[in-house]
Amino acid sequence: MNPAVSAPPRAFITGIAGTRLNPAERAFLAEYRPWGLILFARNCTHRRQIAALCAEFRLAVGRNDAPVFIDQEGGRVQRLRPPLAWRYPAAAWIGAIDRVDNAIAGRAAFLHGRLIAEDLAAIGITADCLPVLDVRRPETHDVIGDRAFSDQPETVAQLARRQMEGLMAGGVSPVMKHIPGHGRATADSHFDLPQVDAPLSALEGADFVPFIHVNDCGMAMTAHVIYEALDAGRAATLSPSVIGGVIRGIIGFDGLLMTDDLSMKALKGPMEGRARAALDAGCDMLLHCNGDMPEMEAVAGAAPVLEGKALERAGAAIAPRNHVETGARVEELRAEFLALMARFPA
């Protein structure tokens, strides 16, 4: 019997290096029991291989319901590309439709999420780091760019809600990002730590708005961004005042809060220190993506057993979704989406 079967998971999501588990990774997963796995293009060659990898991960941690995550947004951020999955337009395409017809844009957002979910659920991927709720601005760095629906907070909220509903209808759990908003950042947090100097009133009037409207999403991912009006010394991921005062307070989010990737260069210092600071700030779940074993072990060593409120939030976030359409029905949905793409070329 796998010894991980009876052991509770620990509060982190890990990446791995390749397309199958190597012996060191298998031993790591059995020992540390991460709650979830996140996949990238490096982990994916064909659909049967991906399904086998998801199953191998679940066997290693001893939990058939262990979530497997991916960033599958459409546009530039799409880990699975043809022939592994459809090529989907970016969120800005849906926002452009909204400027013509709000109802059609809402339907496009739902179909976008629903069809992405179909691609993922069929191969064992059960959570998508989507929707993006960042509000685009003239200064928004290209790392967000067309990943944002719109420069109008209410439009972002409405379209994100419909996209989230599409994901859940297809059996995939959504993760909204990047809370409390990455749109004002003028640097790429993969490489630098962005600093936003907007006053709290401006943030409340725009950036926080989509997250407030969609605060019932089961999971959210933090922004590695400093908001000087909230905490001039720490990125949101590491800031008790941002997490407690804004994310849990003003925004009212009570779901599972995960970090953005701890290996991103926006954060400094030893990996274990980053992990402990994020947990101390109020994050429920650590995310580490790059598959580097020494870093994985450092994060795992800092991650506590998943229990209490964090465990409740985790369970609610991956509760079974409504995946009911037959294959024929899904093809009807694909045909409808193709017709929209033809009507509104990306």
Give a summary of the structure in a few sentences.
Helices cover 41% and strands 12% of the residues. With 346 residues, it is of the alpha/beta class.
Q: Which features would summarize this protein structure in a list?
A:
3-stranded parallel β-sheet, alpha/beta, 346 residues, TIM Barrel, 12 helices, 6-stranded parallel β-sheet
Low-confidence stretches: none
- Give the percentage of residues in beta strands: 5-15%
Strand elements, count = 13
Please state the CA-atom Rg, rounded to the nearest Å: 19 Å
Would you give the CATH topology? Answer: TIM Barrel
Per CATH, the class reads: Alpha Beta
Helix percentage range? 40-55%
The second-level CATH architecture is: Alpha-Beta Barrel
**Average pLDDT for all residues:** 94
| Overall 3D form | globular
- Largest sheet composition: 6 strands, parallel
CATH superfamily: Glycoside hydrolase, family 3, N-terminal domain
**Secondary-structure element pattern, one letter each:** EHEHEEEHHEHEEEHHEEHEHEHHH
Placed side by side, the strands forming the largest sheet appear as: 7-6-3-2-1-13
Topology of helices and strands:
Layout: E1 10-14, H1 23-32, E2 34-39, H2 47-61, E3 68-70, E4 72-74, E5 77-78, H3 91-98, H4 102-121, E6 127-128, H5 153-169, E7 173-174, E8 176-179, E9 195-196, H6 200-207, H7 209-213, E10 219-222, E11 226-227, H8 240-250, E12 256-258, H9 271-281, E13 286-288, H10 293-302, H11 308-317, H12 327-343
Parallel strand pairs: 1-2, 1-13, 2-3, 3-6, 6-7, 8-10, 9-11, 10-12
Antiparallel strand pairs: 4-5
Helix pairs in contact: 1-10, 3-4, 4-5, 4-12, 9-10
